[in-house]
Amino acid sequence: MIELELKHEIKSIPKVLGELDIIKEKDQVDIYYDTHNYDLLRNGNFLRIRNDKRLEFKLYAGDDSHLFCQETDFDLDKLSNNKDKINNILTGIGLKTLDNLTNFKQIIDSNGLIVLSPIIKHRTSYKYDDNITISVDKVDNLGIYMESEIMIDKDNLSSNEADKIKEELVSSLKKASILTGKEKSVNIGYAELYLLKYNIEVYNLGKYKA
């Protein structure tokens, strides 16, 4: 599955969002992890734990603009059931695998992982279209952001295809008055935004830049 995401920093929530159905509203705590050498960050890969419930991977998919990535996730209490899939991902991003995977601490310990960025936010998600979700995130110590996400049922996506989808999405959001064109476009994730503000030396090691 390919996730294509647009992010904008906003000063206030667009009034028109109040006309859309709210899919969910919740607090989210995302803890990003990396190796001591920041190998994942350097290669555009991200590993995080969400709300102490899910192991999530956002993986580099050949897009240097950081517009889209490959995303997959697993319940933390069912890691053993997905051992082979998880080990394949770990191998692909240069981490050690585990023959008897039962919990995330094993992945931390075997790979010497450290916390990269702790991201705490309140997210309200709205249904915009069948495969498009708009989320407003109030992120602790970073600000307010609006993310527009499209999930694409493909394993690969070319840059030209992604650019076309992005243009169509931006045009649609402007017609709906969700975007005005005055918002600040953000082309890095919350993990990098956190590093940009609090750990510039590590931020500079990353594949993606603001």
Tally of domains: 1
**What spatial form do the alpha-carbon principal axes imply?**
globular
Major sheet description: 8 strands, antiparallel, barrel
- What's the CATH class label? Mainly Beta
Number of helices: 6
Total beta strand runs: 9
Distance between the termini: 25 Å
Based on the structure given, which CATH architecture is correct?
A: Beta Barrel
Sum this structure up briefly:
With 210 residues, the chain is of the alpha+beta class. The chain is built from 6 helices and 9 strands, in the order E-E-H-E-E-E-H-H-E-E-E-H-E-H-H. 25% of the residues lie in helices and 37% in strands.
Description:
The protein has 210 residues and is of the alpha+beta class. The protein has one domain (2-203): Hypothetical Protein Pfu-838710-001 (Beta Barrel), CATH 2.40.320.10. It has helices at 39-42, 83-92, 104-111, 159-175, 190-198, 200-203; strands at 2-9, 21-34, 46-50, 54-59, 68-75, 114-129, 132-139, 143-152, 184-186. It has an eight-stranded antiparallel β-barrel. A hairpin with a 3-residue loop joins strand 7 and strand 8.
Layout of secondary structure:
Blueprint: E1 2-9, E2 21-34, H1 39-42, E3 46-50, E4 54-59, E5 68-75, H2 83-92, H3 104-111, E6 114-129, E7 132-139, E8 143-152, H4 159-175, E9 184-186, H5 190-198, H6 200-203
Antiparallel strand pairs: 1-5, 1-8, 1-9, 2-3, 2-6, 3-4, 4-5, 6-7, 7-8
Characteristic terms for this protein:
single chain; 210 residues; Hypothetical Protein Pfu-838710-001; 6 helices; 25% helix; globular
